[in-house]
Each structure stands twice: as structure tokens, then as C-alpha cells.
Amino acid sequence: MLLRSSLLRQYKRCHRLACSRHNIMAIATQKEKLKQQEESRDFFCVVSDAFRLFARRSSTVLGSAWAFGIAILIIVIWGLTGPAFHYSNTWQLIINTGTTIVTFLMVFLIQNTQIWKNLPTKIWLVLRNSSSESEKRQSETETFLAA
Fold first, then answer.
1. How far apart are CA 68 and CA 62, in angstroms?
2. pLDDT per residue as tens digits for the range 94-128
3. Is 66 a residue whose pLDDT tops 80?
4. Can you give the pLDDT at residue 22?
5. Where are the domains of the chain?
6. What percent of the chain stands above pLDDT 90?
7. 77, 129, 119: which is closest to 98 by C-alpha?
8. Distance CA 92, CA 85 (A)
């Protein structure tokens, strides 16, 4: 009986240790997962903030009169070099490729910039429309109930 009781105590103690080790390992694993998620979230926030800053500064520079003048100058130079290259396919391909790449990149810059510039206006419109829609629904309900 004494042996059985001591074996039972030893078993319970070992079981508790095993459970506590498992819990500690589970907690450590959860902490590692949370740390990895936080690091990835931090990375994406840093990238997003950096792109937003880059887009804002780029839109300021590329939206200026100087940038427009440089673009016109590039097109004029390209046009003047046409006779030298006999208006070849390569000559045309250069301007087509350049404009395609610039357009593709500018779409993302403009989109990002417009989101942040128009955000207060959009919030105001949503709030105004939601209140006017609720008033409209209320008057429609009152009209329906009156009829």
C-alpha cells in the first residue's frame, strides 16, 4: 500500500512536470509566433509608410511645371532624332516603352496620393450621406405609415 501510494505521488508529480513543460513550450511557441507576426506587421507598416512618403514627395515633384517641361523636352528631342534613325521601329519602340513604364508607375503613385489627399473629404461625404439616407428612410417610412 505504501509503495502504491508513493508510486502514485511520483506519477502525479511527473505528470504535473510534463504538463507544465508542455504548457511552457506552448506558451513559448505562442510568444514566438506573436513575435514573428509583429515583426512581419512592422515590416509591412514600414514599407507602407515609406511608399506613402515616396508617393507624396514624387507627386509634388512630378506634378510641377518643371517636370512637365522636361517631359515635353524629351518628346521634342525624341522627335528631332527621328530622321537620324530613319524613323525605325527601334526609334518608335523607345518612346512606346518609356511612356508605358512611366504610365504604369504613375498609376500607383497617383492612386496612393489621391487616397490620402481625399480621405477627409470621403469621410465627410460618407457621414453626410449616411445621415441624409437615414433621414430619407425615416421620411419614407412615415409617408408609408401615413398612407
1. 8
2. 999 999 999 998 888 888 777 766 666 767 677 77
3. yes
4. 53
5. 1-49, 63-147
6. 27
7. 77
8. 10
Q: What is the pLDDT of residue 78?
A: 93
Amino acid at 9: R
> Scanning the structure block, which residue is given the C-alpha cell 508605358?
100
| Helix/strand/coil (H/E/C) assignment for every residue in the chain | CHHHHHHHHHHHHHHHHHHHHHHHHHHHHHHHHHHHHHHHHHHHHHHHHHHHHHHHHHHHHHCCHHHHHHHHHHHHHHHHCCHHHCCCHHHHHHHHHHHHHHHHHHHHHHHHHHHHHHHHHHHHHHHHHHHHHHHHHHHHHHHHHHC
